[in-house]
Amino acid sequence: MSRKWKVVVEGGADNLYYVSKSDDVFYVYKTTVGWPFDDNDQIGKTDSLELAIMLIKQDSGDDIDHIEEV
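-> structure tokens emitted (70 positions)
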């Protein structure tokens, strides 16, 4: 079963990430909101949600504002 989380980082509109889990692998994407489609760039993959969050914090340079499962 796959799962997906939206991760919003403090500091503005460009700080949106998604983490998706499939077959025990967590894929991390940085999202640029656009019209008509968003642009999702994979920035890495890990074996845990905690490591995915650390990767997002390292990429953004900011703290996590909130995480929600979508």
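The longest strand covers residues 25-32.
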